[in-house]
Write a structure and sequence with these properties.
- There is one protein chain.
- The chain is α/β, with parallel strands linked by helices.
- Helix content is about 30%, strand content about 25%.
- The longest helix is centred in the last third of the chain and has 27 residues.
- The mean pLDDT is about 90.
Length: about 300
């Protein structure tokens, strides 16, 4: 079992903690440098967490639990146009990243007004490539309820945010609703906004934990973080990708930011233990820039 952690500290001697993670049999999930500060998401064996904490203390850094690390979240807005004031959606995205999430902004193509708003099958398929979807909606209760057709048949956990208080029973197909986050034409910096964002973080973590427990009943044949490491080691083209997190871990799969038509065979032949990846996963073309989507098979798939 692995624990997902976030290290925050200076870049000076940061290679030391990366080497320690590798020595302990852990994995670096994501590394971001912000000026002179390093934010490092990692997965390490649970028994070795204290060793990592001691090293972080030595480097004058901080370690925090990152339940969202190793997941990918879609933040969906009816549009990203001025009509829907993307400040709230963008601030939600930025705030979740502080807790280790890898999130993507998704603006629907036909979302101006509740009478014309819509979602296509391709948009649904793209959203369902993630672990969780957060629909960032507006300030009017009836409008949010009337737009249920945007999210009520999405086949992953769905969180809806909006300004008013709404009973979950009024939102079919939704796993959770977080109020206090409507169309706000400014940055979310006030006390009530921060409290709403913290409630959203707690809600996301709760749904991810629930999903992890479900996966524990029938886990992937190989952990996604192990597959991520092997792809990065065995596929030289990964080193040429300039996009952040060229191999993005999900709870039960990965997104590889290489062109499917050009590289899918190379990904299929990555060796995991004594098997090829194509034997323990479905390799598909993503709706996201024609990237490669790896959906790991579960242990029950081995039973005839």
């Amino acid at each position: 079992m692995y624990e997902t952690l976030t290290f925050t500290g200076g870049i000076h001697k940061s290679e030391e903690i990366k080497e320690l993670i590798e020595d302990l049999g852990g994995f670096v999930l994501q590394s971001n440098i912000l000026q002179m500060e390093l934010v490092l998401n990692m997965a390490v064996p649970i028994d070795d967490v204290d060793i990592i904490k001691e090293k972080a203390k030595e480097l004058l850094g901080e370690i925090s639990i990152a339940p969202m690390a190793g997941s990918e979240i879609a933040i969906v807005s009816p549009t990203l146009a001025r009509h829907h004031l993307p400040h709230a959606a963008c601030d939600i995205s930025e705030y979740l990243r502080r807790y280790g999430a890898k999130d993507n902004m998704v603006g629907l193509a036909r979302g101006h007004g509740k009478g014309t708003a819509g979602i296509s099958e391709t948009e649904k398929a793209l959203i369902e490539e993630h672990d969780i979807a957060i629909f960032a909606l507006g300030s009017f209760k009836q409008c949010i309820i009337d737009k249920a057709y945007l999210y009520n048949d999405i086949d992953i956990p769905v969180i809806v945010t909006g300004a008013p208080e709404i009973d979950l029973e009024e939102l079919p197909g939704v796993d959770a609703y977080v109020p206090g986050l409507g169309r706000i034409p400014r940055r979310l910096k006030r006390g009530e906004n921060i409290r709403a964002l913290k409630q959203l973080v707690a809600t996301v973590e709760e749904l991810l934990e629930k999903r992890k427990k479900e996966l524990a009943q029938d886990p992937p044949i190989a952990p996604s973080i192990l597959v991520k490491n092997e792809i990065e080691t065995q596929v030289p083209a990964i080193k040429e990708v300039i996009s952040p997190t060229p191999v993005t871990s999900q709870l039960s799969g990965l997104r590889v930011k290489l062109d499917y038509d050009k590289y899918h065979e190379e990904i299929e032949n990555v060796v995991i233990g004594d098997q090829k990846l194509k034997d323990i996963a479905e390799i598909k073309k993503s709706h996201f820039y024609d990237y490669i989507l790896v959906e790991l098979l579960t242990e029950s798939s081995l039973v005839d």
